[in-house]
Write a structure and sequence with these properties.
The chain is α/β, with parallel strands linked by helices. It has three domains: 107 residues, 3-Layer(aba) Sandwich (Rossmann fold), CATH 3.40.50.10800; 93 residues, Rossmann fold (3-Layer(aba) Sandwich), CATH 3.40.50; 81 residues, Rossmann fold, CATH 3.40.50.10800. Helix content is 42%, strand content 16%. It is built from 15 helices and twelve strands. The protein has a four-stranded parallel beta sheet with strand order 2-1-3-4, sandwiched between helices. It has a four-stranded parallel beta sheet with strand order 6-5-7-8. The chain has a four-stranded parallel beta sheet with strand order 10-9-11-12, with helices on both faces. Helix 1 packs parallel to helix 14 and helix 4 crosses helix 15. The site of 1,3-dihydroxyacetonephosphate has 10 residues, from loops.
Length: 308
Amino acid sequence: MELTGLQRKIVALKEEKNALLLAHNYQINEIQEIADFVGDSLELCRRAQGVEDRELIVFCGVDFMAETASILNPHKKVVIPSAEAICPMAAMLPLKVLKNMKEKYPGAPVVLYVNTLAEAKTEADVICTSANAAEIVAQLEGDTILFGPDVNLAWYVSQRVPEKTLVPVPDYGHCIVHRFLGDGSEAMELKKKYPDSELLVHPECEPEFQEKADFVLSTGGIYRRCEESPAKVFIIGTEVGMVDRLRREIPGKTFLPAKKFSECAAMKRITLENTYDSLMNEAPVIRVPEEIAARARVPIERMLEMSR
Ligand code: 13P
Ligand code: SF4
C-alpha cells in the first residue's frame, strides 16, 4: 500500500511529536491506514491505558471515546481532529434523567454504555462496551439493573442474561446509523444470493435484525470472526468503515455491507486534513474537569477489571 503525500506528512509529524494515533473501526480507510492502532471501543480503552512513553494522543473517533482516553490519562494531552465528531447517542442520556431514574430504583446497579458523556459516567457503577456488556451485567449483584442509553444493546444483554431485569435509561436511546439498517431485509436479500455467507450484526441494531444474524458482535468481535471463520463471504451489519478495514486486512474473503450508505456522520467528520492540523496545532484538546474525570474513572477502571 502506497501512502499519499498527506498521509506521509502525518506519519512524519506523528513521529516527530512522539504522538500516538488511535482510530476507531469506523474511521475512513485513509486514517485507518496510518493509525498506530485501529479497534473497537474496548480495545481502544485498553490501548489508551499506560501510554507514558507518548507525548500526545490523537484520537480519531468520536467525543466520548476521546474523553475516555483523556480520563484514563489525566496528565496527557488528548486531541480530537474535529470538535464536531459528536456521537448523538451519547448525548441522549442527560445527567438529570439518570439521577431521576436512580431515585426511582434506589440501590439498583447502574451500567452505562461507554457511549455516554463523562458527566453521566460519574453516576455509573460500571461502564460497558458492546464487547463486554453481557459479561459485565452477569457479574453484578441484584436482579434489576439500570442500563443506558442504548435500548437495543439492553435487549441484546437481556437475551444473554435472562436472570436480570434491565431497565433502559432513557427508553428511547439508540444509534441512528444502526437504526437505519432496519430489520435487515436488505441483508436477507444478500443472504439469498450468497447462501453460504455469514451475517454478522452489531448489538446496536434493532432486535428484528439481531434475530436474523449468525452472530451479534462488537466491531472487534466482527473482525475476529471474519478472520477465524471458514466462510468466504460476510454480510456486515454495522457502519461501513468496518467493511473498509476487513477488505484491507483480510484478503481472499468478500465483505458486503448489509445496507448501502450506513455511514456515521460523526465519525466521518474526521479527515486527513483535520488530523494533520490537529497534530500540528495540538488542538482541539479534550478537557474533562478533574472533579468529573476522577469520578468517571472509577466505573471505567471497574469495567476494565471485570472484563477479559
Ligand atoms: P464498538 O465498540 O463495537 O466498536 O462500537 C462502537 C460504536 O459506536 C458503535 O456504533
Ligand atoms: Fe454513535 Fe452510532 Fe456513530 Fe457509533 S455509529 S459513534 S453509536 S452515532
